[in-house]
């Protein structure tokens, strides 16, 4: 796409519209001939230091009609139906198609079922899952300074507990024909609407685990109250407990195995599904690190 073509498109939309230009991946990985993307959830529990957790479940959203590359001559102006049902994976668009369905082989599927299908076709889903984790980490590292500044401006004071807020993000990714994930966008306020049973099962577990990971134990709350209580000496407040001391003890945390990905072999450890769709764990976060351990 040339700059002139982009300008022509902007003019067609009114001339003053604000736009985001993205590279179009015209050779996506297909499921039975259908283009799809993945919605995954990432939880940020701290900005300084940056702590990121990925939810080991998600949704695959398929186009309602089979994909045809623009290279074949069809283009986006084809009179053969609505091109959006072949090229755009947006749920809001495809749910309007008469063939839209939510099932193991439908237009909206569970992440584990999709990974199992890709594995049966010979794709290295362990490597793919590892690369997805790295995309999530790098996306957050890129905005960490901005996040840290915004967070510092909202904290009442320097003595406030460093884990006093969190952010749940929705990451949309596309996988190309070589099995490489591409980040489409990051939603800082992902929809938690439950239009289907699939949504309800997934998002109930997502929210329950988010609250579990971010909540304080009774013992921890007592430590925080004691730390912020004025001292008897001169009214000065005591220092809060160290960040690591103030986190919930390991016994009450949900399993959230740290996932490090410096090598291909270590990226094979934590998959959303390893025993088929029925065995997909419905809950659970994994702590993410970059390949450099940051």
Q: Can you give a write-up of this model?
A:
The protein contains eight helices and seven strands; from the N terminus they run H-E-E-E-H-H-E-H-H-E-E-H-H-H-E. With 294 residues, it is an alpha+beta fold. Strands 1, 2, 3, 4, 5, 6 and 7 form a seven-stranded antiparallel beta sheet that branches. Strand 2 and strand 3 (51-62) form a beta hairpin. The longest helix is centred in the middle third of the chain and has 30 residues, at 125-154. It is globular.
Q: What pattern of helices and strands is seen along the backbone?
A: HEEEHHEHHEEHHHE
Ranges where pLDDT stays below 50 over 5 or more residues in a row are 234-283
Tertiary shape: globular
Terminal CA distance reads: 37 Å
Total helical elements = 8
> Quick check: average pLDDT?
75
User: Beta-strand percentage?
Assistant: 15-25%
Count of strand segments = 7
Sheet/helix structural class = alpha+beta
| Helical coverage, percent range | 25-40%
Cα Rg: 22 Å
Report on the biggest sheet.
7 strands, antiparallel
Topology:
Blueprint: H1 3-12, E1 30-31, E2 34-46, E3 51-62, H2 84-87, H3 91-94, E4 108-110, H4 111-120, H5 125-154, E5 167-175, E6 181-187, H6 197-214, H7 218-227, H8 243-246, E7 285-288
Keyword list:
294 residues; 7-stranded antiparallel beta sheet; 8 helices
Short description:
This protein has 294 residues and is of the alpha+beta class.
């Amino acid at each position: 796409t040339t700059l002139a073509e982009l300008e022509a498109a902007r003019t067609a939309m009114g001339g003053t519209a604000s736009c985001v230009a993205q590279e179009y991946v015209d050779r996506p990985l297909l499921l039975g001939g259908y283009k799809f993307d993945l919605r995954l959830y990432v939880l940020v529990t701290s900005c300084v230091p940056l702590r990121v957790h990925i939810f080991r479940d998600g949704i695959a959203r398929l186009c309602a009609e089979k994909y045809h590359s623009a290279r074949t001559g069809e283009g986006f102006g084809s009179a053969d139906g609505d091109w959006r049902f072949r090229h755009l994976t947006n749920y809001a668009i495809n749910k309007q198609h008469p063939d839209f369905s939510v099932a193991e082989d439908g237009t909206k599927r569970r992440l584990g079922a999709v990974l199992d299908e890709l594995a049966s076709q010979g794709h290295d889903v362990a490597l793919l899952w590892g690369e997805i984790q790295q995309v999530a980490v790098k996306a957050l590292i890129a905005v960490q300074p901005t996040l840290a500044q915004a967070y510092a401006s909202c904290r009442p004071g320097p003595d406030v507990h460093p884990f006093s807020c969190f952010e749940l993000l929705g990451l949309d990714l596309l996988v190309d024909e070589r099995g490489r994930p591409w980040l489409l966008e990051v939603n800082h306020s992902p929809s938690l609407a439950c239009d289907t049973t699939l949504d309800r099962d997934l998002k109930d577990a997502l929210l329950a685990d988010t609250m579990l990971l971010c909540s304080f134990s009774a013992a921890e709350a007592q430590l925080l109250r004691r730390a912020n209580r004025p001292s008897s000496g001169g009214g000065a407040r005591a220092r809060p407990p160290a960040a690591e001391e103030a986190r919930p003890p390991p016994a009450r945390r949900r399993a959230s195995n740290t996932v490090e990905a410096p090598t291909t072999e270590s990226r094979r450890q934590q998959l959303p599904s390893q025993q088929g769709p029925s065995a997909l764990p419905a809950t659970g976060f994994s702590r993410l690190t970059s390949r450099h351990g940051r």
